[in-house]
Predict the structure.
Amino acid sequence: MNNDTTALYAFRKYGNTVLRAAFAFSGSYAEAEDIVQEVFLSLHTHPRPFNDDEHIKAWLLRVTINKCKNLRRSFRFNMVCSIDDIEQSDAIYEISTSGRELREQIAALPRKYAEVIFLHYYEGYSIKEMSEILKKNENTVGSLLRRGREKLKIELEKEDEPCTEKIIKML
């Protein structure tokens, strides 16, 4: 089996297994589908040698679990308010608009900060991965992320909206 067909072979043989594992860890079918795509795309773009089918399966499941863990740590996954916090129907509208307003506040930051905040919190990239994407030093990316968080925190502290305190604590 050559590197061009490894991902296709693995998808046909283990696609459902990977999907079930992703669903079990993520709890969302839509998120599980996205994770499966990422796993097999990773295998396709970065082929590696495998000893046998069990080695392929083990690698696929390990990568799936890691991607699920990354999802759980991501800002998007944590950006949820408890239903107990919602006291009236107007609060639902406020929470749904606060997410949109947060994205607008991130977009209003200088581009260098908005990029790293978006990549880290919404896309779940690590500092190392962002440094490769942005073609910048890891220390530079870490500094940009820290400064961007500080600027965003200052802007959020000016607001008095539901869930804002939870967002500020995560920053």
In short: The mean pLDDT is 78. DSSP finds nine helices and no strands in the chain. The two ends are 46 Å apart (CA to CA). Residues 96 and 162 are 10 Å apart (CA to CA).
